Amino acid sequence: MTVIDPTSARAILGRRLALAVVGLVGIVGVGLIAGPALAGDAVAQFEFGDDEHAAEPGDTVTVDVHLSSDGGYADEGIDAYEFVIAVPPAVGEPTTDVEVGPWLARDGGAVGQTVERVGDGAIRVQHERTDAENGVTGTGVVATVTIEIRDDAPAADAGVVVAETSANLYGNDYRMQSFGDETTIAISGGGEQIDPAYEPGTAGDGSVDVTTAAETNRSVADDGSDSQGDDSLPGFGIATGVAAVGLLLCVGYVSRRRSRLAD
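The structure corresponding to this sequence follows.
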């Protein structure tokens, strides 16, 4: 039986390799923990102020869009966001005359606004804080949207959604996880449920799909490159890459050392 001297070069190399592997496993573990933590801190919740509105044909309805966020994991706030408001075309149209809310304009900040029509019964609203050294956190109204009800609108429960939501942190390219919301306009006391017909991000039944905090099984499509239901972990990817490279270097080093000792 061969007895290995604990002070021999091979024994020392073996212990070093074991320590290196343990350290790299620790890095991966940190990545697994840090990834969800970093992603979980950066959440933006878009909500309507009321669950239901009442209207008659020919009326004008205003809906407030609220935004709630604690900002990012480095305490940075939101400095830009966008969302789509979609209404059933048979019931009405949201106008492009959107009033900017006070949330993003806190502390005297200026807000740039872009509003465009993106389909029947749908508009996209984009806001950007243009002169701030940091973003905004907390809860407040970001926009007031005016919806013109058609003169021939049927008695119905018309679904209105804030969908395809997106928010950006100040000084950070990381796209926050965001959630939308739904509200209803009861026309002439309500009736059949009618959903928006906006095409991008629609569900199989033709209704606009919207991710809400209570229904995270549904995901809103965006520009086609990413999904807001993406569960990727940024911290985990980096840690895994570092661990893999480090492990390969350690194995290569030990193999060379053993070859030299054998010679």
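The two ends are 22 Å apart (CA to CA).
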